Amino acid sequence: MLAVSKDIKTINLNIGGYAEGSTALNNKTGGWRTFKPVLSRDKCVDCMICWIYCPDDSIVVKDGKMIGFDYEYCKGCRVCANVCPRSAIEMVSER
Amino acid sequence: MVAVKTIRKSLTGAQAAAEAMKQVDVDVVAAYPITPQTPIVQEYAQFVADGIVNTEMIQVESEHSAMSAVIGAAASGARATTATSAQGLAYMWEMVGIASTLRLPIVMNIVNRALSGPLNIHCDHSDAMSIRDLGWIMLFSENPQEVYYNNILAFRIAEDPRVFLPVAVNQDGFITSHCVEAVDVLEDEFVKKFVGDYKYPYTLLDFENPISVGEWAMPSHYFEFRVSVQKAIEDSVPVIEEIFDKFYQETGVKFDFFEGYRVEDADIVFISMGSTSGTVRYVVDRMRSKGGKVGSINVRVFRPFRIDKLLNIIPNAKYLVVMDRSLSFGTTGSPLYQDITSGLYSKDRCLLVNNYVYGLGGRDITDTDIEEVYEHALYSMSEGISGQVVYVGLNPSFVKK
Ligand code: SF4
Ligand code: SF4
Prior knowledge:
The complex is a heterodimer. By secondary structure, chain A is an alpha+beta fold. Chain A has two helices and five strands, in the order ββαββαβ. Chain A is elongated. Chain B has twelve helices and 16 strands. Chains A and B meet through strand 1 of A and strand 9 and helix 8 of B. The site of one iron/sulfur cluster (SF4) has 13 residues of chain A, from helix 2. One iron/sulfur cluster (SF4) binds next to helix 1 of chain A.
């Protein structure tokens, strides 16, 4: 679409582009993934290091136990697998 | 008509800026020392130390951090300001563009100084020109009095909810910043009332309604955000007019985007910014007394740049002398010249225009130099010469015989 500058009306966006809390939840980054993290529960000692490092809040914890991944948001960045001291996370191709 | 009282003080341009900042009572000042800006913040630090102002002064480790701190402060709901020059502005540059696209009403004093290299601490406008496309409103000051008024106006303009853009107040390094002149200072109460309270639509410190500032925007949104800044700066024009008018009503001091001097019937019109405009007016008077039809324009508002306003006050001009105190390497003419010539083209007004580049790195510009420019203008007008870049005051050994 072509828009002549003098015809631009007020642009209805948050001023300066600030975002309300939790709006990142609208952005399902799981679609970016090519490798997915898979947990070996028997190796895991629930140290929560992966939970601290995950850039996307995708480590699912219940009652103090690491129980898996939120694949809606997990980007497959491999950080959790790298930091896990017990090698309890394996990256598996989704191709 | 005007009831407001003033007190006459002897102030440098730097002190005049600090005086206005004091009266506006800034919440946060974050700055890093750099010549010739340093005396502004030095002066202000004294106000803080003496308990005269209620300001959080942040001593940052660089200009990049200074602008970052001021951005954070402004987004948290504080009135925040900084000051810099040349290399400091260059180092700050990344954050300068972020301040405007975040639409934060920050005021920054720029004490204009030449960009390196070679290293030089003296006046020219190359530092300010590096931010001319970044979405800041840019005011230029001819003398300490204008520095003072521009600062008060800058806070009022920036913080108007119809604007919400940062404003840079420029003054010439050393020439204005370090020379003492008589400055009429308004009463504290008047300034406080004129500027009003700082209120921003959100604050980072609202824990009930958490937000984040400094978001990313994918190709689906980035374009619209950039256009919204363009729209904001265009829409600031009537607000700036209104604020200038209010200031005039209340103080009797008139401001306009372009200040014309003896221009109505002039065929030759000088256009300049900063301290040189005063010297030009002096030469205009001298040439007028010899029968020359010459006038001058002082550019007060450089961004937004409104060519229509400029052309309105020079109905009879045939020849424009565009005085630039910076270079734009690799294209035709310097920034002010580019704005004027492209503007003329779009307004279908065909004037002879030459670009006179002067004063780089603090090279003196005297009345004699400006008379020489006038002679060149007379000759070029009679010969119909246009589109040339002319260097004023260059060492003659560099010029072909
Ligand atoms: S880092 Fe490894 S061991 Fe620690 S909680 Fe995560 S998966 Fe379990
Ligand atoms: S792969 Fe990356 S995003 Fe996914 S759970 Fe591990 S650290 Fe989080």
